[in-house]
Amino acid sequence: MRLRETSAVSLILPLLLSILLAGLLAGCGSGDQSGGGQQEKQGGKAAKQKRLSGKIAIGTVRAYKDDRRRLSLRPAARKQDDKPLGFKVREHAQVTLDGEKAELGDIQEGQQAQVRYIVKNEVNRATIVQLFSRQSSSKDENEKKQPSKDAEKTG
Fold this sequence. Notes:
By secondary structure, the chain is α+β, with helices and mostly antiparallel strands. The protein has helices spanning 2-28, 36-42, 44-48, 138-145, 149-154, and strands spanning 54-65, 70-75, 85-97, 100-101, 112-120, 123-132. The chain has a domain at 52-132: CATH 2.40.50.320. It is built from five helices and six strands; from the N terminus they run H-H-H-E-E-E-E-E-E-H-H. Strands 1-2-3-6-5 form a five-stranded mixed barrel. The longest helix has 27 residues, at 2-28. It is elongated, with a radius of gyration of 24 Å. It starts with a helix and ends with a helix. The mean pLDDT is 74.
């Protein structure tokens, strides 16, 4: 039985890797290289129609103001300018909590979050907010599983 599992994995793994590589290469080569001269003729129109690139921020929710839909995120990656990132959460933003659909009101201080956003008019606008509930540390788990020494003496 073990031999079948390893042979299946050894067949599937290269297939998945080649599909992933092909997808990445196709994504890299999809840039428009033929319309360079046409964009120069259109001037300002090309700049206005420039596609907004999406960005991702990961960190801890510092604050959320529901009435103004403003989210402050403390980034997980430390930089020299360790400033929180501010976001305007779009009215129809997708919000999930541990993979389940959630509401804007479910955003709480201290939660881990991944925010996908675009920058429009120099304002970070959150389009997708993925929240993760607080996980208890392994130390807390061990304390719950093992009764204290006082309890052992009395029992």
